[in-house]
Amino acid sequence: MLYNGVIIRMVVPLLEVRNLQRFFPIRRGLLRRVVGQVRAVDDISFQINKGETLSLVGESGCGKTTTARCILRALKPTAGEVLFQTAAGDVVDTAGLPKAALAPFRHQMQMIFQDPFSSLNPRMTVFDIIAEPLLASGVRSRGQRRQRVERLLELVRLRPEFMQRYPHAFSGGQRQRIGIARALALNPSLIVADEPVSALDVSVQAQILNLMLELQDELGLTYLFVAHDLSVVKHISDRVAVMYVGKIVEIAETDRLFKAPKHPYTEALLSAVPKPDPRLRSERIVLQGEVADPAHPPGGCYFHPRCAHAIERCRTETPALEEVQPGHQVACHRARELTLKGVGARR
Amino acid sequence: MINAPLLSVNNLKTWFFTDEGTVKAVDGASFEVGAGKTVGIVGESGCGKSVTALSILRIVQEPGRIVGGEIQLRRADEAGCVDLAKLDSEGKEIRAIRGGEIALVFQEPMTSFSPHYTIGNQIVETIQLHQDVGKEEARNRTIELLRMVGIPRPERRIDEYPFELSGGLRQRVMIAMALSCNPKILIADEPTTALDVTTQAQILDLLREIQERTGMSVIIITHDMGVIAEMADDVIVMYLGRVVESGPVDEIFHQPKHPYTQALLRSIPSIFAEPRAKLPTIAGSIPHPHNRPVGCPFHPRCVERIAGVCDVHAPQLRPVNELQMASCFLYHEPEEAPPS
Q1: Fewer CB within 10 Å, N side or C side of chain B?
Q2: List of chain A residues whose C-beta atoms are within 8 Å of the C-beta of residue B201
Q3: Is residue B129 part of a domain?
Q4: Which domain does B172 fall in, by range?
Q5: Number of separate domains in chain B
Q6: In angstroms, rounded to a whole number, what is the distance separating the alpha carbons of residues A42 and A61?
Q7: Is residue B159 situated within a structural domain?
Q8: Which of residues 116-175 of A touch B (CB under 8 A)?
Q9: Which of A203, A216, A225 to mutate to test binding with chain B, by most B CBs within 10 Å of its CB?
């Protein structure tokens, strides 16, 4: 924007999620009556700035994948807004738009899937796989598509000669590169990556993570990265949001969140990660009990039955996500008084 | 011999004879498991770590066969050893050892139970198969076992079906079943891979606690270096069917000798890393088992390969110091003439 003749570059979030909810009905009996709700995503809000990576982490069933699917409108949110800034500069609420009206924006958000084996059609060549979105968006000339696929393959560091081969000829890491090339075909601004490296061997994970970091720098991409592995998350994220039973319990810059967590669940999660050094064997915090059932969550703070710091208030009153420091939000009644242990740099 | 290992595997070879050719899933693996020790076998997909476990229990499926080597299990009673590799895989002797002296915990606790029977039924069956006890006593022992592995209200849970339990509880039941006959060796094949990290921490703690109480040996098989660092006393690193390095856990993590171990440790995403730090990588990917490289299986990806040596000769696992062994020509000369 122009202000007194000076161009001011405002930090506009590319994506802003406000009070997003997605419930799944539980049906029982002959008439399939709705007898309850699974609150898979329960009133979460966050934003992602242009060019940054936000990770959603949490254990299975915490709602991280459901959140990602709501943002892409693979699922219709029950309530809330998903405000996306389009390439033209407008802001649209993709949660509220009818399906047909979404079409012009779909190509600006793309997805990288977890399993590189089942996400590529084995009967299509690499060229057909990567060119399919081009065809769907109206690139009629085969020559143009070919050029674009060549360029995309180079971008993901695969040899363009490979484009006539079928997916079975590639290793897991190479397939994931093909999946990334497909996601990039239409010049998206937002990439949603759901566990993109968890199906890969550890020696290949590093290659894909590096590639994603490089592509982000080269193309100015914005990532929403969904993962359960905190080590992987640390390598890719600018900011991290921790989810527990459908809610965000903590969100902060990566370094802050790892070094000085403010929510007891984040602390326990960090502590539970097996550290690759036998000399650091265990002053682990081992959480008792199990993750709460999102169909019947406990009262108050959902984490209180497992929390070592819980007080009476935690049993009755649900904590709101509040800013304890600039950019660091926590949903815990005791966030300001507790001193929790994080994971620093290796000594 | 007081310090004789409980289990010693020598030059084990388990090959699969498929229509497309022979897959040498395990091709000359050697290691020992001491009494009361935890041995970690670590490697990426296709390295042969699971097939090694299946070979020990003699449950390798067709078209796989043990084609060479021995698996010596020290028996308490007869004060002798038995070579598991030589036993009839359906014979009486191995069936007594399987589930009796050596028990197995699988990765996926959902598919390892029968969905048609209650968990109690399945454990009672195991106990009665191996021990001469009545139904009532077997049931009481099952309740005790379930309590020992931390199942709340075991007297009620015993009559539940596997689908009624969460993943973490199922894995606990699986461990209870494995422990039901007081095994001397527990083989845990990726016991926590399907679990969330907080549940994983609970199960690893449980395994350690039970080991302290019973003094059994544990073989833990995983791709996760973190789990190895937490659990193992001794570590065996495998790559494409071969043991590339072995040694005590501290040496493996702090003075790794084999270039593969070194590269693997450098390339794993670490929770200690600086945010958005690029990782050193291992070039290329694991070869398809039908295209095994000649010579050292790691040489095409190795930064320290010696042309004319590593791509010709196959290195053998040999000591590099008092504690560690490695199969690498950086430490030894080739021993044999190249195959003509």
Answers
A1: C
A2: 271-272, 274, 284, 286-287
A3: yes
A4: 112-182
A5: 1
A6: 12
A7: yes
A8: 171-174
A9: A203
* CA–CA separation, A281 and A274 (whole Å): 9
Rounded to a whole number, what is the distance in angstroms from the first to the last CA of chain A?
46
Q: Is residue B105 part of a domain?
A: no
Structure tokens at A205: 């994970």
Q: A286 and B201 in contact by Cβ < 8 A?
A: yes
Tokens 């060229």 correspond to A127
Q: How far is B267 from chain A (nearest CA, A)?
A: 6
Return the closest-CA partner of residue B300 out of B317, B285, B315, B278. Answer: B285
Residue A236 · residue A212 · CB < 8 Å: yes
With cut-offs at 50, 70 and 90, classify the pLDDT of residue B75: confident
Size of interface A-B (CB pairs under 8 A): 158
Alpha-carbon span A321 to A302, nearest angstrom? 13
Check residue A300 and report its DSSP letter: S
- B interface test, pick of A59, A201, A210, A245 with most B CB neighbours within 10 Å: A201
Kindly give, in sequence order, each residue whose CB lies less than 8 Å from that of residue B263, ignoring residues fewer than 6 positions away: A203, B280, B282, B301, B302, B303
pLDDT of residue A8: 47
Residue A254 has pLDDT above 90, yes or no: yes
Q: Where are the beta strands (DSSP E) in B19-95?
A: 21-33, 38-42, 64-74, 81-83
Q: Which residues 46-75 of chain A have a CB within 8 Å of chain B? A: 53, 59-60
ipTM of the complex: 0.84
Asked if residue B302 lies in contact with residue B259, where contact means CB atoms within 8 angstroms, the answer is yes
pTM for this prediction = 0.88
Q: What is the SS3 assignment for B254? A: helix
